[in-house]
Description:
26% of the residues lie in helices and 28% in strands. It is built from 3 helices and 7 strands; from the N terminus they run H-E-E-E-H-E-E-E-E-H. It has helices at 4-16, 92-106, 176-200; strands spanning 55-57, 70-76, 79-87, 111-112, 123-135, 141-151, 160-170.
Amino acid sequence: MSPRLPVLFLALALAGCGPIVQIGGNAKAPVSLLTIAATATPRPYAGPTRLVDTLAVALPTVPATLQTLRLPVTGSASEVRYLAGATWAEQPNRQFQRLLADTITASGTPVLDTRQPAVSPARLLSGSLRDFGLDVSGAPQVRVRFDAQLAAPRAPDGRVGIRRFEASEPVSDQSPPAVAAALNRAANRVAAEVADWVKAG
Length: 201
């Protein structure tokens, strides 16, 4: 018998048992995780709500640079890197979806949970979170850009509202907490403008 056979049998047996060490299990945990939240306080629900007044906020789509827990830094039109030490607690579009819903609710528009399919809302707010990061191509600043779509599927005219919302905030401190705080302020300004647009529509 070849001396290599016992080693081969042992390797095959270990492979059948699965990995000995979990991939990524030894990675160092981040010191802290970054979050954003609405500064407006949602109104508590009280009593029945007319279905015609309701709205749902869909999860915004994002480009590949935002499909991560890292915070993008734009250096030029053709260069994107990520901020060292910055890790989101959850992907930015999911946090922005909740921030939008809370801000719109605070403005008086009833927002339905899209995960509850039993009731269809009268209108749907969807869109794309195109920018949500730090831009250092000029004076350092954070940028938030949301390309929104507001549709009423049951409306007889079938029209869709389309509008772009943008906000920026200068940053003098490029540490992860300071950048996240600036993004939170910019995101809340965008959400407030979206809430006014939704209410007016």
